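Researcher: Let's do a round of design. I'm pasting the structure tokens now; please hold your answer until I've finished.
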């Protein structure tokens, strides 16, 4: 059983892993934008929905990583792994719940972690998933 300080440490690791993944997503968005600008004759993309198009790309990135091995690159760097409370594999529905609640209500879901005995954000509680510290092999 983990004590409260180890739960807090895990929360910090989660936030740092999220930062790492954010940097990776920015790089992916740059590549996609470069391709889109090239296809647009070198002109800037000015359509307001272009930015919204990045949201499903981020979802695909997270869902693919979570279903493939329970880890994004940031989670691998901080030795974190996403597991399901019921099954061994993360389901598509769990990915949907985690991603949309975690991204739309980011700060609010993490505030919930301070009120949960296990320091789980609301999107973990509702998707019945949890992040665990992966052991060193």
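Researcher: That's everything. Go ahead.
Model: Designed sequence:
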């Amino acid at each position: 059983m983990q004590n409260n300080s180890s739960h807090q440490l895990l929360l910090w690791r989660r936030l740092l892993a999220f930062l790492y993944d954010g940097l990776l997503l920015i790089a992916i968005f740059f590549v996609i934008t470069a391709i889109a600008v090239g296809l647009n004759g070198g002109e800037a993309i000015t359509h307001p929905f272009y930015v919204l198009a990045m949201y499903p790309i981020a979802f695909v990135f997270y869902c693919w990583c979570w279903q493939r091995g329970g880890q994004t690159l940031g989670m691998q760097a901080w030795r974190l792994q996403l597991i399901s409370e019921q099954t061994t594999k993360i389901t598509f529905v769990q990915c949907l719940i985690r991603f949309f609640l975690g991204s739309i209500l980011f700060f609010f879901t993490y505030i919930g972690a301070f009120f949960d005995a296990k320091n789980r954000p609301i999107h973990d509680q509702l998707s019945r998933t949890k992040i665990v510290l992966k052991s060193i092999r």
